[in-house]
Design brief:
about 40% helix; 14 helices; globular; alpha/beta; seven-stranded mixed β-sheet; three-stranded antiparallel β-sheet; disordered C terminus
């Protein structure tokens, strides 16, 4: 049975062309980029070429790109680095309640170090209010961090407007663009952001490599010390094959973005319309249309446990998710769905489908054929019943 992979927000398949670009740096050109001999020069030149590719993808200067081990490290370096480097100006940070755990848990760490963090609420579709941000800013605010696109429900924030509000008050603005790059235009100059994080494996590059954009003049304190690599901000021998792969994946992703996005949008909308019409008491989490990532469909189903759906779909060769891959082993309901004002029972009945450029309409039809009987079977087994109230409370 051919398998269907609808969990691309967790990770993506490496593009064959990316693997081909990486291969020589494992087997032939395997030098350390800090070495003085020709092997070292080859590695260094490859790294700098990849830095240019990643910089071009977000309209940045190459010197402003710092390579890391992935999105989590990039978020940590941006948040901790900016917080500690600017603590003399103030110790107040603002973020949102729907951020990835790489941001939320880092903010909790900073709170333990004496920083104050404000967690902005979101509306029922996951959007941060500009008015809430204005009201939260104080003279002590040094950093605002709002993700560009949500990894669970696909909500695309109005980053340009939010950044303008923060910058008008003298605060730095950071955005986690891990899910956004190659799916929506990402231009650090147009958006006027100071810090932006990326991860290669979300756009058909390898795992274990990411990048942080740091606007010229922004002060950061390192979180890893050693040989002073990456302008002294990220010590460690550079992962040259991974960096080369990230550069190639970014280049391909931007060059092919228009075609890929249009394809994913058609499949996404087919999945949404087909599921909502075929399954009673099914709902879409997050917005419709332009405010949603092209590859994201997140549903909730009354009287269902999401884990059961995922397991039964997997038995039919279809990979899906109940939410973020970083929290699927937790029994706690999604913090993102809870922030929308949903009850615990509703959160547990969620299912995330996330697409890539490799998915097809035939795969979508296969899901649409499989999901109604799975829902019917699980509802017959469910201890939850028709008498359970699923009224959504007002978002606090």
């Amino acid at each position: 049975m051919d398998r269907v992979y609808f969990d691309n927000s967790a990770t993506t398949r490496v593009d064959d062309r990316v693997l081909d670009a990486m291969r020589p740096y494992f087997l032939e050109k395997y030098g350390n980029a800090s070495s003085l001999h020709s092997f070292g020069h080859e590695a260094y030149d490859a790294m700098e070429a990849a830095r240019e590719q990643v910089a071009k993808a977000v309209n940045a200067a190459p010197r402003d790109i710092i390579f890391t081990s992935g999105g989590t490290e990039s978020d940590n370096l941006a948040l901790q680095g900016a917080a500690f480097a600017n603590a003399s100006k103030g110790k107040h940070i603002i973020t949102s309640s729907v951020e990835h755990h790489a941001v939320l848990h880092t903010c909790q760490f900073l709170e333990a170090q004496g920083f104050k963090v404000t967690y902005l609420p979101v509306d029922s579709e996951g959007f941060v209010s500009e008015e809430d941000l204005k009201n939260a800013l104080t003279p002590e605010t040094t950093l605002v961090s709002i993700m560009m696109a949500n990894n669970e429900i696909g909500t695309i924030q109005r980053i340009k407007d939010l950044a303008e509000i923060a910058k008008d008050k003298g605060a730095l603005f950071m955005t986690d663009a891990v899910q956004a790059l190659t799916k929506i235009p990402v231009d650090v100059e147009r958006l006027n952001v100071d810090l932006l994080t990326m991860s290669a494996h979300k756009f058909h590059g390898p795992k274990g490599v990411g990048a942080l954009y740091v606007r010229k003049g922004v002060k950061l304190r390192p979180i890893i010390y050693g040989g002073g690599h990456e302008r002294g901000l990220r010590s460690s021998t550079e992962n040259i094959p991974g960096i080369v792969g990230m550069g190639k994946a970014a280049e391909l992703g931007i060059a092919e973005m228009d075609e890929s996005v249009e394809r994913m949008e058609r499949i996404r909308d087919h999945l949404i319309d087909g599921t909502l019409s075929a399954v009673p008491r099914s709902y879409l989490n997050g917005p419709r249309g332009d405010g949603r990532l092209c590859n994201n469909a997140n549903f909730r189903f009354d009287y269902i446990e999401g884990e059961g759906m995922v397991l039964l779909l997997d038995m039919q060769g279809i990979a899906a998710s109940t939410g973020s891959a970083c929290s699927t082993k937790s029994l706690e309901p999604s913090h993102v769905l809870r922030s929308l004002g949903l009850r615990h029972e509703q959160c547990h009945g969620s299912l995330r489908l996330s697409l890539s450029k490799f998915n097809t309409m035939e795969e979508a039809d296969r899901f649409l054929e499989a999901i109604p009987p799975i829902i019917e079977r699980l509802r017959k087994m469910s201890p939850l019943g028709e008498g359970v109230s699923y009224d959504v409370p007002a978002v606090q």
